[in-house]
Amino acid sequence: MSPKGQVYLFAALFILLGLGLTIYKSVMLHFPLLPDTARKVWDIEAQITFDASGDPLTLSLALPEQQQQFRVLDEVFASAGYGFVIDENHQRRAIWTRREASGPQTLYYRLTITDRSRELGAYHSTDLPETVIPPAWSAAEATAAAGLIRTASELSADAASFTQQLLQMLTGQSLSQDAQLLIDSSRSESLAQLTIKLLNAADIPARMVRGIYLQNRHYNQRAEEIIEVYDGKQWIFFDPRTATRGVPANFFMWQRGGQSLLDIIGGHNSQVRFSVLGNDISARTVALKEARTETVALVDFNIYSLPLDKQNIFKMLLLVPIGALVVVIFRVLVGLKTSGTFMPVLIALAFIQTTLVAGLLILVSLVAVGLWIRSYLSRLDLLMVARLAAVLITVVILMAGFSILSYKLGLDQVLTITFFPMIIIAWTIERMSIVWEEDGPREVLTQGTGSLVVAVIAYLLMTNSFIEHLTYNFPEILLIELGIILILGQYTGYRLTELKRFRFLIDK
Fold this sequence. Notes:
This protein has helices at about 5-25, 115-120, 140-155, 160-170, 175-185, 190-200, 285-295, 295-300, 310-315, 320-335, 345-355, 355-380, 385-410, 420-440, 440-460, 465-475, 475-490, 505; strands at about 40-55, 55-60, 70-80, 85, 95-100, 100-115, 205-215, 220, 225-230, 235-240, 245, 250-255, 260-265, 265-280. By secondary structure, the chain is α+β, with helices and mostly antiparallel strands.
């Protein structure tokens, strides 16, 4: 393969790899492409209160598991004085134990979750049901249940419509005698529990789902109940209070299936109350927590794993390739002359620290005075190394003098003069002096103006909040920039500044 073909091959690979990694982080890891993007995060606290009887105590609380519409970012257990373990068998539960406890007791469980329903759409569950166990009824209850099941079967076509018909008969304004009998005889049970018993009596798999509604600053709420029904292919959710299908909006499922939310041995008067607080925080922060929870290698082996002070350094360094790309575009495509190849990038970095206007004034002043001093040193017939060292020392003296004078005059912006690279400025003064001697002041003005123009444009791009956000959160963009620069390196056509010179060729 020819060198030109190799360049285009590598450029295509770099660009595709950079785009692929960027899209992966945005779509799969949910890193935001726009700055200041926020995501809703919910802090949920479960408060468990009970009276201990003085005997050995064992308390078990069902814990929420990772689910499709919500992602658990963090969880904390407050259990001072208690033994604590998490039981992962069949259903995830927290177990607190204590040899002896008496009197009122309070335990806390806190977790932080984020909503992913907009990204994933409706909730679907396909796990298989357990064997249906028919409920035990009294003779009167069995007769009433059979009547309700027979009526619902006649008015329905499948398990889903059967459930809706059954719920409507149990929650309607005018209840039938069968429905009223079952409700009266099941006062110790909730509507959801009664419905599940009727569904199991009809040989339809159903189970309880307990959860809470995510409402900001909602305190001391009980767990709400909805029903899950298996239609032969998937689980379908129903709200027993409204007989509507689907998971209610902002409903966080705490427990799916299982017999109880809270079990206690050695205590009484137990209850669980939930408090919810919503916050809008940076989408990047949420994405990092999600990625670290799943141990994503692309995030673990990234600049995010570095200490914060090192991250701040890389945040600046990742902007340098943007300036380099600007220099390549203006020199290769536009044909603008600059003093040195990447001197404009260093000037742009200095402008970031000094602000644009103050930086321009400082730079022009330093170079102008330095050129005047350099012209005098050239008359002394010094060797180039000695002359360059003398210019460097002169630049340091000028920077110190400007800083002291600005401090005395109260001009704080000029104090940032120390951010300019002294060696580069000294070398620029030396190079411009040589150009002045060989090509005249016009060429010096051309290169100096070109350097400032490119530096200003690079500064504007490097300080753009969108570009700064992309380069820091998606460093894979470096591969895209490298691919574009490789392609530009093969350009041998006319530059924009040459069109005027060769305009007669265009006219023909």
